[in-house]
Design brief:
The complex is a heterodimer of chains A (107) and B (119).
Chain A: E1 4-7, E2 10-13, E3 19-25, E4 33-38, E5 45-49, E6 53-54, E7 62-67, E8 70-75, E9 85-90, E10 97-98, E11 102-106
Parallel strand pairs in A: 2-11
Antiparallel strand pairs in A: 1-3, 3-8, 4-5, 4-9, 5-6, 7-8, 9-10, 9-11
Chain B: E1 3-7, E2 10-12, E3 18-25, E4 34-39, E5 45-51, E6 58-60, E7 68-73, E8 78-83, E9 92-99, E10 106-109, E11 113-117
Parallel strand pairs in B: 2-11
Antiparallel strand pairs in B: 1-3, 3-8, 4-5, 4-9, 5-6, 7-8, 9-10, 9-11
């Protein structure tokens, strides 16, 4: 199985900050990577697919990059509604696997 | 508007069975791969299984192989997860999800249904 890791596991930031989260796959997955946002007690929300393509309706302050084994999610200017946990997921090969998550909270 | 509404969760004893359902609306159900993803209390997301549009292909995470069965009824716009031989570690919120056309990432999520396995 492909193992996904994320760093950091948590971070504290202020509104307006630029935030970068890293996701690493244990083997190459081309660009078959998605990012999701989850707020407490809520279902996840899809943000990015194919490593860098924004889902419809997702604000442009979110961006994704990378290919192969190393990927990043960047929030260019953190907004109050962005405090949440972020997960990456590979869908290159079965079983699809998620990273452990990165919690973004208020500094 | 895409809607996915899960039902069937609840409390079940270890070794017991439960069948989850997901009612889909707002899109052509028969045109999309569908998935189940779960989240144990206070833990991260775990992909469980998915199924092709016509039900001809199904994939599972190793921990549920032989115990869980994913299925669908395209005439009723419904997705199912039959869970047998349940264990305490199956306790989780189970999300029904629609994959993106042409890709395998999840595009839409249901609100989830809680399954608790305990004596």
């Amino acid at each position: 199985d492909i193992q996904m890791t994320q760093s950091p596991s948590s971070l504290s930031a202020s509104v307006g900050d630029r935030v970068t989260i890293t996701c690493r796959a244990s083997q190459g997955i081309s660009s078959w990577l998605a990012w999701y946002q989850q707020k407490p007690e809520k279902a996840p929300k899809s943000l990015i697919y194919a490593a860098s393509s924004l889902q419809s309706g997702v604000p442009s302050r979110f961006s994704g990059s990378g290919s192969g084994t190393d990927f990043t999610l960047t929030i260019s200017s953190l907004q109050p509604e962005d405090f949440a946990t972020y997960y990456c997921q590979q869908y290159d090969s079965y079983p699809f696997t998620f990273g452990p998550g990165t919690k973004v909270d208020l500094k | 508007e895409v809607q996915l509404v899960e039902s069937g969760g609840g409390l079940v004893q270890p070794g017991g069975s439960l069948r989850l359902s997901c009612a889909a609306s707002g899109f052509t159900f028969s045109s999309y791969w569908m998935s189940w993803v779960r989240q144990a209390p206070g833990k991260g997301l775990e992909w469980v299984a998915n199924i092709k549009q016509d039900g001809s292909e199904k994939y599972y995470v190793d921990s549920v192989k032989g115990r869980f069965t994913i299925s669908r009824d395209n005439a009723k716009n419904s997705l199912f997860l039959q869970m047998n031989s349940l264990r305490a570690e199956d306790t989780a919120v189970y999300y029904c999800a629609r994959e993106m056309g042409g890709y395998s990432n999840i595009e839409y999520w249901g609100q989830g249904t809680l399954v608790t396995v305990s004596s």
